[in-house]
Amino acid sequence: MSSVGRPCKVAVFGLDCFEPSLCFERWIDDLPALRGLMRRGTWGRMTSSMPPVTVPAWSCMTAGKDPGTLGIYGFRDRKDRSYDQWVICTSLRVREPRLWDILTRHDRDSLVIGVPETYPITKPIRGCMITSFLTPSTTEAAVQYTYPPELRREIEQLVGEYLVDVPMPRGGDRKTILDGIYLMTERRFEVVRRLMRTKPWDLMFMVEMGTDRIHHGFWSFMDPAHRNHQPGNAFERAIYDYYVYVDGQIGKTLEQLDLSTTAVWVVSDHGARVLHGGVLLNEWLRREGDLVLKSPPGPKQKFDVKDVDWARTRAFASPGYYGQIFINLKGREPQGVVDPAEYDRYREDVVRRLEAMPGPDGRPLGNVCHRPDRIYRACNNVAPDLIVILGRLGWRASGWFGNDSIYIYDDDAAAEDANHAQEGMYLFSHPAIPPGGQVDGATIYDVAPTILCELGVPVPADMQGRALHA
Length: 470
What we know:
Elements lengths: L8 E7 L4 H7 L5 H9 L1 E6 L6 H10 L3 H4 L5 E3 L7 E3 L10 H7 L4 E4 L13 E4 L15 E2 L3 H9 L14 H25 L4 E6 L1 H13 L15 H17 L7 E6 L3 E4 L2 E4 H8 L12 E2 L12 E4 L4 E5 L15 H13 L12 E3 L1 H4 L10 E4 L5 E4 L1 E2 L5 E2 L9 E4 L1 E7 L7 E2 L3 E2 L3 H9 L15
Parallel strand pairs: 1-8, 1-9, 2-22, 2-23, 5-6, 5-8, 11-17
Antiparallel strand pairs: 2-21, 3-4, 6-7, 9-21, 10-20, 11-19, 12-18, 13-14, 14-16, 15-16
C-alpha cells in the first residue's frame, strides 16, 4: 500500500466488450471523459480470460481467479458427465468470493449494478445489488433482482422499467434494437448516479451491456472488412455515436464524484473484432471420423446427442463464440470409447488436425487449441478437454450438420456481426498515483487485487493477479 497511500473509494465503469483499438486509438479525440482519465492515469490493453467471453470473464475479473478454478467455462456448461445435461452459468455456479463478498467481510459497502453472474441473489452483501442480463425479468414480482428487495421500488419510481438487456432477434429491426440499447444505457447510468448520491459506498462496480450488444449487432455497418458491409449505410456511425454517448454518461457521472478521494476505473472484459462466419465443428469431427451419427444428417440439422452413435464416437463439440471439445473417455463418459491410456495421444492428434484446418481460401485458418489442465490452476466441475479458438476469433463454432462445407454464413452467426477479441482494456486514475501513461501487459486477474489495494483491504493469497501499482 505504500505506493497508494491512504485508502480511497473506487468507482468502476465496466463496459462489456469495449474495444481498445476504438476507444484508445480511433476515436479517443471524441471521448473527452476517457481522454481526461487517461491523461491523469494509467491505461492499456488487458488480456482477458481464456475463453474471452462475458461468462466467466467478469467473475474472473472480480474474483481474481481463472475459469478452471471457478469451474465456469462459458454461458452454458455441462452439468455432469451425462451427454444431455447442461446448465446456464448463473450466480449459482460462482463459489469463489468476489470483490463485494470480500468487502462485506471487512464491513465495507458496495454498489453492484449489472455485473454478470449476480442473478439470482444468493446471499446479502453490505450495500446494494442490481442483477445482470441473465435476470429473467424485472417486471415479474416473483423475480428478485435487487438487494435489498425494497430497492426495486425506488428504481422503478426513478426510471420505470429497469432494463437488464435488450432483445437481439435474428433479422430484427436495427432501429428498434439501437433505440433499446440507448434506453437501457440511459436508465442504467441514471440509477447508478442516484445510488452513488444516496447510498453509502466504498466500491461502485457497474457493468453496461450495451457496448457488447452494439458490437454484435452493428459491426458490419462500420467495418469494410465485414462481408456484408455496404459503404454509406444508415448505421455506419452507430457504434461511434454510441461510444461518444457512453463517454458522455461516464463524464456526467464523474461530475458528481470527489476525484481527490476516489479512484476511477474503466474496464472491459474482452474486446471485439469482425466475425467472418461459423465453423461446423461437429460436422468437421464427423468428416474426420471422430463423431459418428446413427444415420446421415439432413440439411442444416442441429447437433442432438440423441442422434449420436456413442459406441463409435470419440469426441463431440459444443458451439459458441469458441469451441469446446469433449473426448468420449472410457470410464468417465457414460458410453466412453477412448481408452484412458490413449487419452493424451488422441487429444494431441485432435489438436494437430484442428490447428492444421484450412480456411475457405485453402490457407490455414489459424486455429489455436488450449488444454484446460495446462492453463488453469484447477479444473473444477466439467471442463472441456479442449478449448478451440477458431481463426483467431474471426470465426465461431456452429452446431449445424449437413452442409456441403464446414464453413457457414447463415446460421446463428448471421445474427452476430462481431466476435470477441482476446484483448480488452483497462484505465484507472488514482488521486495519490502519478499518471503512468500507457502500460500494456495487464491481465484480467490484476483488477481485483489492485482495487483491494486501493481500498486498503488485504488481498487474499489465492488471488492469481497482481496489484498494478504495488
